[in-house]
Amino acid sequence: MAAQTRDITDTVVAVTGASAGIGAATARLLVEAGARVVVQARRKDRLDALVAELGAERVVAVVGDVREPSASAALVTAAERAFGRLDSIVVNAGIGMYGGILDRSDEDLQMMMRTNVEGTVWAVRAAVRSFREAGGGDVVIVASVAGLRGGADEAVYAATKFAQVGLAGALDREVRPDGIRVTALCPAGVETEFAIGAGRTEGDPSLADYLRPEDVAFAVVTVLRQPRRLRTTQWQMWSMDQGS
After folding, report:
1. Three-state SS for 100?
2. In degrees rounded to 5, what are phi and psi of residue 52?
3. Can you point out the beta strands (E) in 42-143?
4. Where in the chain does DSSP place strands (E)?
5. 157, 162, 194, 210: which is the annotated catalytic residue?
């Protein structure tokens, strides 16, 4: 008998880093799939535009900086107040800066480490508290293939992504008995505004070979639609045009 996909209609999903790129694409595809979505980012104008596009009856926006634990607490609270619960969280907020170990300022590296690592931890902690009370949920962390293999001129960025992958693996062992599934998505390059001006150049023809934000959004929705008896702990993704 063929496995039946899980219906995610009216499930409540929080998405961090939702003002552009993968986060915005994920919010759009979730709404298309019938979910209700709580989006968070620092740029209020972008969030307001996304709500206007997708409909205030399905999407709620929470402005916040993931580096602050209070932002993650506010995200979960907003989901529970608007829709009565939280079923899943997509931890997507992140920044990237390319360069050798000595090429970036202390402040730049600190921002990247705090956003990518602390921002993931705070979001996960807030969601897990809610999921444990509810008896289950899904944590999807958007990491990177850089968290599996590293690469020249991205050592600190790769370190933050290794941290995300390690956190996801440990969490799978920790919270699975609570009915919480944890997935690390590890895409290769994605054509977004990510790292533009910090190692990537807007309009660079090589970006055409990369994955699209919608590809990663597809993976998010696929993971959430898995039957509850099934979990995917890690998903590595490459475009057909990008070498591995």
Report:
1. coil
2. -60, -35
3. 59-63, 88-91, 137-142
4. 12-16, 36-41, 59-63, 88-91, 137-142, 180-187, 234-237
5. 157
All residues at 6 or more sequence positions from 230 whose CB lies less than 8 Å from its CB, including other chains: 3
pTM of the model: 0.94
- Residues whose CB is less than 8 angstroms from the CB of residue 105 and which lie 6 or more positions away in sequence, other chains included: none
Question: Are the beta carbons of 56 and 62 closer than 8 angstroms?
Answer: no
152-188 per-position pLDDT tens digit = 899 999 999 999 999 999 999 999 999 999 999 999 9
Q: Domain 12-237: give its CATH code.
A: 3.40.50.720
Strand 137-142: give its sheet, edge to edge.
Answer: 59-63, 36-41, 12-16, 88-91, 137-142, 180-187, 234-237
Per-domain boundaries in the chain: 12-237
Annotation marks residue 157 as catalytic: yes
